[in-house]
């Protein structure tokens, strides 16, 4: 198979949460454990840092990888979902794995995948672990896909774990209270392995404290310890919380020499070192166009606060959501004095633009429906003056189509 044919087979044959939602999830670790055994347990052949959380886990993962790269280590980075190319998910020192590796891996193990009916995510995690083991990385930063306790990445025994924060997202899968969600995220805490929580949240701190006590794991709330402030190249004031968690995590990482200059340089060269996209990413200057992958209540609150600090004549918002988002809590966050461009991300889970427009009108948000994200962005560009501000967001998939 060619690389294109391989991807077509992967997307067509294997359930994928991003496309199908909750129906794609296994809720057990037996499949990934069976796959790891089939691959000769690659997860046991490299050191790792495990990263979970509702918001900020992607940015934090890239920060960690960038700093470790600056310290001259060979660093694997596994994240999800991808925005433009599947290979974004699996990188070493910022370079995606080769198309040939993807083809060879699927070809060699296709019969096993079909026989065991593995999910897209399980297969991709297996591919990442196999790649990192074969390329002999010094350490890999592994981002949780969904939740933590029953996530396919949770077969690793990391050197340290990082949980960024807890908010309401994927409530149909992880639970409908912050306590339940925190318990699922806290499932990455391992016996005797330190865990950092970037943001202390009084209402759920006890959940982490109880798990850490049970596991005999050192627990640190990063924003409750004295830390030197660091600047990052990632735009958005909300990144400060992520930086605190990352710095505290690296201080707990034993056996790796990371200097102050590595931290400073790593935080300034995140995009250059890792290829990160979609975090307050500037797509144009006149008018200023920014996209961000924030897609839940807490994440969008932070992004909208950042937008409110910008200087502009008129605000244009290009929005697209997936069907499982709670619009009743998300839409009230948006300003009424803006022009809206409603669209549907081009995936099966994409929320119909007309339905979104109808819902938004109930909250005083007025605009027009477009057949695609690009059509919506094109209209916003046409309507905006050079002193206006255009924002594109609502989901990873909306952003992906705009890039």
Automatic annotation (TrEMBL):
Pathway: Cofactor biosynthesis; tetrahydrofolate biosynthesis; 7,8-dihydrofolate from 2-amino-4-hydroxy-6-hydroxymethyl-7,8-dihydropteridine diphosphate and 4-aminobenzoate: step 2/2; Cofactor biosynthesis; tetrahydrofolylpolyglutamate biosynthesis
Residue ranges constituting the Mur ligase central domain according to the UniProt record: 51-223
Entry superkingdom: Bacteria
Catalytic activity: (6R)-5,10-methylenetetrahydrofolyl-(gamma-L-Glu)(n) + L-glutamate + ATP = (6R)-5,10-methylenetetrahydrofolyl-(gamma-L-Glu)(n+1) + ADP + phosphate + H(+); (6S)-5,6,7,8-tetrahydrofolyl-(gamma-L-Glu)(n) + L-glutamate + ATP = (6S)-5,6,7,8-tetrahydrofolyl-(gamma-L-Glu)(n+1) + ADP + phosphate + H(+); 7,8-dihydropteroate + L-glutamate + ATP = 7,8-dihydrofolate + ADP + phosphate + H(+); 10-formyltetrahydrofolyl-(gamma-L-Glu)(n) + L-glutamate + ATP = 10-formyltetrahydrofolyl-(gamma-L-Glu)(n+1) + ADP + phosphate + H(+)
Ranges for domain Mur ligase C-terminal: 278-395
Entry's Gene Ontology cellular component terms: cytoplasm
PROSITE patterns membership: FOLYLPOLYGLU_SYNT_1, FOLYLPOLYGLU_SYNT_2
EC number: 6.3.2.12, 6.3.2.17
Matches recorded under InterPro entries: Folylpolyglutamate_synth (IPR001645), Folylpolyglutamate_synth_CS (IPR018109), Mur-like_cat_sf (IPR036565), Mur_ligase_C (IPR004101), Mur_ligase_C_dom_sf (IPR036615), Mur_ligase_cen (IPR013221)
Alphabetical list of SUPFAM superfamilies matching this protein: MurD-like peptide ligases, catalytic domain, MurD-like peptide ligases, peptide-binding domain
GO biological process: folic acid biosynthetic process
Keywords, in A-Z order: ATP-binding, Folate biosynthesis, Ligase, Magnesium, Metal-binding, Nucleotide-binding
GO molecular function: ATP binding; dihydrofolate synthase activity; metal ion binding; tetrahydrofolylpolyglutamate synthase activity
Any Pfam family the entry gives: Mur_ligase_C
Similarity section: Belongs to the folylpolyglutamate synthase family.
PANTHER family: DIHYDROFOLATE SYNTHETASE-RELATED, FOLYLPOLYGLUTAMATE SYNTHASE-RELATED
Physiological role: Functions in two distinct reactions of the de novo folate biosynthetic pathway. Catalyzes the addition of a glutamate residue to dihydropteroate (7,8-dihydropteroate or H2Pte) to form dihydrofolate (7,8-dihydrofolate monoglutamate or H2Pte-Glu). Also catalyzes successive additions of L-glutamate to tetrahydrofolate or 10-formyltetrahydrofolate or 5,10-methylenetetrahydrofolate, leading to folylpolyglutamate derivatives.
Listed name of the protein: Dihydrofolate synthase/folylpolyglutamate synthase
Source organism of the structure: Pelagihabitans pacificus
């Amino acid at each position: 198979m060619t690389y294109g044919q391989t991807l077509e087979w992967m997307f067509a044959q294997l359930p994928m949460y991003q496309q199908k939602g909750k129906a794609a999830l296994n809720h057990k670790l037996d499949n990934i454990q069976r796959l790891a055994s089939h691959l000769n347990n690659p997860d046991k052949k490299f050191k790792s840092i495990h990263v979970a959380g509702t918001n900020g886990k992607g940015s934090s993962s890239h920060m960690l990888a960038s700093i470790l790269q600056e310290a001259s280590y060979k660093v694997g980075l596994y994240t999800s979902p991808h925005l433009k190319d599947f290979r974004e998910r699996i990188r070493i020192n910022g370079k995606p794995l080769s198309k040939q590796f993807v083809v060879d891996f699927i070809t060699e193990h296709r019969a096993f995948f079909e026989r065991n009916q593995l999910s897209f995510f399980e297969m991709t995690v297996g591919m990442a672990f196999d790649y990192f083991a074969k390329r002999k990385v010094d350490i890999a930063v592994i981002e949780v896909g969904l939740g933590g306790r029953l996530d396919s990445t949770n077969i690793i025994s990391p050197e340290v774990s990082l949980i960024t924060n807890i908010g309401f997202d994927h409530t149909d899968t992880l639970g409908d209270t912050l306590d339940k969600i925190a318990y699922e995220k806290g499932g990455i805490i391992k016996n005797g392995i330190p865990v950092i929580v970037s943001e202390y949240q009084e209402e759920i701190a006890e959940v982490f404290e109880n798990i850490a006590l049970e596991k005999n794991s050192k627990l640190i709330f990063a924003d409750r310890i004295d830390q030197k402030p660091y600047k990052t190249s990632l735009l958005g004031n909300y990144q400060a919380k992520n930086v605190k968690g990352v710095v505290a995590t690296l201080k707990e990482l034993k056996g790796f020499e990371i200097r102050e200059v590595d931290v400073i340089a790593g935080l300034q060269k995140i995009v250059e070192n890792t290829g990160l996209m979609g975090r307050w990413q500037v797509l144009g200057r006149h008018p200023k166009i920014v996209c961000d992958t924030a897609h839940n209540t807490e994440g969008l609150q932070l992004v909208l606060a950042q937008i409110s600090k910008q200087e502009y004549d008129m605000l244009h918002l290009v929005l697209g959501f997936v069907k499982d988002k709670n619009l009743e809590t998300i839409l009230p966050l948006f300003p009424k004095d803006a022009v809206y461009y409603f669209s549907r991300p081009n995936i099966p889970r994409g929320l119909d633009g007309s339905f979104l427009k109808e819902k938004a009108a109930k909250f005083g948000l007025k605009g027009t429906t477009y057949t695609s994200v690009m059509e919506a962005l094109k209209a916003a560009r046409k309507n905006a003056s050079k002193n206006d501000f255009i924002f594109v967001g609502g989901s990873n998939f909306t952003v992906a189509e705009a890039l």
